[in-house]
Design brief:
The protein is of the alpha/beta class. Among the domains are: about 70 residues, no CATH class; about 200 residues, no CATH class. The chain is about 25% helix and about 20% strand. It contains 13 helices and 20 strands. The strands form three sheets. The protein has a 15-stranded parallel beta sheet with strand order 1-2-3-5-7-8-10-12-14-15-16-17-18-19-20, with no helix packed on it. Helix 8 links the parallel strand 7 and strand 8. Helix 2 crosses helix 4, helix 3 packs across helix 4 and helix 5 runs parallel beside helix 6. The longest helix has 18 residues. The protein starts with about 25 loop residues before the first helix and ends with a helix. About 35% of the residues are buried. InterPro entries: At1g61320/At1g61330-like, F-box-like_dom_sf, LRR_At1g61320_AtMIF1, LRR_dom_sf. It comes from Triticum aestivum. This is At1g61320/AtMIF1 LRR domain-containing protein.
């Protein structure tokens, strides 16, 4: 079918009925090349094409043009409608408007990514587009707008009973949303994403209490929400994500099946988070580790997967009697920046191992942009903890491995006490690696401070780690990438 596109302008999208000549030679050629299939099957094939390809196909086939006018999945981005880089918002508006004015079917998916286009022509376009899109049968609605001084007020009045019965996915960005108690139930809504949306807790509460089929709730930078109280009526809610909601202080959940929680920001005292059933927890916050070790075992005793990302730690992890009895997968990132107020004692993370008798996987990131710890080569006398055999820990990875004495001590403790250990990976850098997958694939860039430490890290492994590795453990040492980091290493080493 690609051979029949000759003569059409690259990037064109058929938004008007006059965009296709049904009697043209290209149309006849296409009809002779399309299999003699029932119309409903051809329409189904056409509906499975990505939007831009579906539009191009409609330009050369009367059969597919008819299908295009009732195409059920519309995704509007600069790429899908063929706008050139730097095109202004008015051109974006104009193309979408022409396509929608000639649309005659029922939409299942309606996605507008207006973010990043230059210019803003007011809200009248958005109102008109949503009036066309929000009809019974719509399943997914995404409205991603650009940041402006005055946010677009999403018209809740368009959520008719028919729309509320079919809508399964709703994502809004840079909008204002003000639902009231008169909204009515959204009987099919499963996923709700509100990113940089102006909405109060009372308004969000109206939406939540009308969305009892909700399975996922994602809130990012919603500054007007001060509390979040999830009722027990949310029987299906399994995942909650809250990022950078500065005024939010309390999260209370009685949702019985909420098992996944992701919290990011310095605005929340997670000791005020009442979510006992949680099994998967991810936290990002400064100076977090001590509180997590002290409070989480009692607050969330059912945790099986825990990920903690922290910086600027001022208190080491304490040894406590409380346990994470069900914890199987633990990730801790304590990544220090260029300015460090104190050298964090990574050896104190033994406290988490001691508290996790069921732990199977441990991933640590101890990356330092500059070395502030005492080196193992300055003091090779290792500290020792009482022996505590870990019978389930099989896989351990330490990223940003360096020659800090406390890092070497922690590694030696794991080798001595993890009797079931199978794999130990020590990575001298952090982040993603290119894995030699093509010319445009690169490893995460490293600062000079990290690159300068790498030879010492490798020497520490050779002199203090390798001789302690049991024969049953497979040790993998990952050095800097010869493609991505060679020049940087050569530069910093020549300066040292």
């Amino acid at each position: 079918m690609a051979s029949t596109t000759t003569g059409k302008r690259k990037g064109s999208t058929c938004g008007e009925q006059g965009g296709v000549d049904g009697d043209s030679q290209s149309g006849k050629a296409t009809r002779s090349s399309i299999p003699d299939l029932p119309e409903d099957i051809l329409f189904r094939i056409h509906s499975l094409l990505p939007m831009r390809e579906a539009a191009r196909t409609a330009c050369i086939s009367p059969t597919f043009f008819q299908s295009w006018r009732c195409h059920s999945n519309l995704l509007f981005t600069k790429d899908t409608i063929g706008l050139k880089r730097g095109a202004c918002g008015e051109n974006f508006d104009d193309k979408i408007d022409r396509i929608l004015r000639n649309h005659s079917g029922c939409l299942k998916t309606f996605n507008i990514d207006y973010y990043g286009t230059r210019g803003f022509s007011g809200t009248s376009y958005f109102d008109r587009w949503l009036q066309i899109a929000l009809k019974p049968g719509i399943e997914e609605l995404t409205l991603v707008l650009s940041e402006t001084k005055r946010k677009y007020n999403f018209p809740c009045s368009l959520l008719s009973a028919g729309v509320r019965n079919s809508l399964r996915y709703l994502r809004l960005q840079f909008c204002a949303l003000h639902p009231t108690v008169e909204l009515g139930p959204l009987r099919s809504l499963k996923s709700l994403y509100l990113w940089r949306v102006s909405i109060t807790w009372n308004e969000l509460e109206c939406l939540i209490f009308n969305s009892l089929t909700l399975e996922l709730l994602d809130l990012i930078s919603c500054p007007e929400i001060e509390c979040l109280k999830l009722p027990c009526a949310l029987q299906r809610l399994s995942a909650l994500s809250v990022l950078a909601c500065e005024r939010l202080k309390v999260i209370e959940s009685k949702a019985p099946n909420l098992s996944g929680l992701y919290l990011c920001g310095n605005w929340l005292d997670f000791s005020l988070v009442e979510t006992l059933p949680i099994k998967e927890l991810e936290l990002q916050q400064t100076n977090l580790i001590c509180d997590a070790r002290a409070k989480l075992p009692s607050l969330m005793p059912n945790i099986e997967t825990l990920a903690i990302q922290s910086s600027r730690e001022v208190v080491d992890a304490p040894m406590l009697p409380t346990k994470f009895l069900h914890l199987k997968h633990l990730t801790i990132t304590v990544r220090s920046g260029a300015i460090v107020s104190r050298a964090y004692d990574y050896f104190s993370l033994v406290s988490f191992l001691d508290a996790s008798p069921s732990l199977e996987t441990l991933i640590l990131d101890v990356t330092q942009r500059r070395m502030v710890h005492k080196s193992i080569f300055a003091d090779s006398q290792l500290r020792h903890m009482p022996e505590h055999h870990h019978g389930h820990l099989k896989n351990v990875k330490i990223s940003g491995f360096n020659s800090a004495k406390c890092v070497v001590e922690l590694t030696c403790y794991i080798l001595k006490n993890a009797v079931s250990l199978e794999c130990l990976t020590l990575d001298t850098i952090y982040g993603s690696r290119c894995d030699d997958q093509g010319e445009d694939n690169w490893c995460t860039p490293m600062t000079d401070g990290i690159l300068m430490e790498i030879p010492w890290a490798l020497l520490a492994i050779k002199t203090h780690i390798e001789n302690k590795v049991p024969p049953t453990v497979h040790l993998t040492v990952l050095e800097p990438c010869s493609k991505c980091h060679a020049n940087g290493l050569e530069r910093v080493l020549s300066q040292s």
